[in-house]
Each structure stands twice: as C-alpha cells, then as structure tokens.
Amino acid sequence: MTSSDFPGNSPGPETETPSCSAKGCRDAAVWVLAWNNPKLHTPERRKTWLACEEHREHLSQFLGVRGFLKDVVKLDEWVQPEGSER
C-alpha cells in the first residue's frame, strides 16, 4: 500500500497521522471508505480512501454514484482484508 493511492495524499513516514483523502485536505482521517471498481478488481478486493468528518459524505457519494463504494468504517475499527490496498 502506498499513500499515493489516496487522492490528495503524498508519500510520508508511516508514523504520521493518517490524513483525509479529499483533495487539499490535511485533516486527520476518521473514516475508511472501502471500494473497488468492478471493471478492474475482483469482487473481494478492496481499495481504501480515508476521510475526515467533513469529507466523508462527499467522498462516499463520489464512490457511490459510480457503484464503487462497498463499506464505510471508523478508522479505529478498520481491519484491512488480505489482498486489499490503499
């Protein structure tokens, strides 16, 4: 997994607080949005975006209208499935 898979995130040390994936936002992430593109990914594969409180709904809608959004989970409750990536 790399942080460059998140929109708006740039690579950084793993010790940094995870930040929101919304473009230009550096607020602390609170939510994990698990998604996949069924044209590109197997059904069990999950990619993730992170969201702060302010951008959770916007990012969820962006993925939802495309049929990509699979789950929204609090960051501190997220357990990444094997084979998934950010």
Explain what you see:
Helices cover 12% and strands 19% of the residues. It starts with 30 loop residues before the first strand and ends in a 12-residue tail after the last strand. The protein is built from 1 helix and 3 strands; from the N terminus they run ββαβ. With 86 residues, the protein is of the alpha+beta class. It has a 3-stranded antiparallel beta sheet with strand order 2-1-3, covered by helices on one side.
- Based on secondary structure, the structural category is alpha+beta
Number of strands: 3
Instruction: Provide the succession of SSEs.
Output: EEHE
Assess the beta-strand content as a share of residues: 15-25%
Give the CA-CA distance, first to last residue.
Answer: 5 Å
What does the radius of gyration come to? 12 Å
Which sequence of strands runs across the widest sheet?
Answer: 2-1-3
Binned, the helix content reads: 10-25%
Question: How many separate helices?
Answer: 1
- Report on the biggest sheet: 3 strands, antiparallel
Shape designation: globular
**Overall average residue pLDDT:** 84
Poorly predicted tracts of residues: 1-8
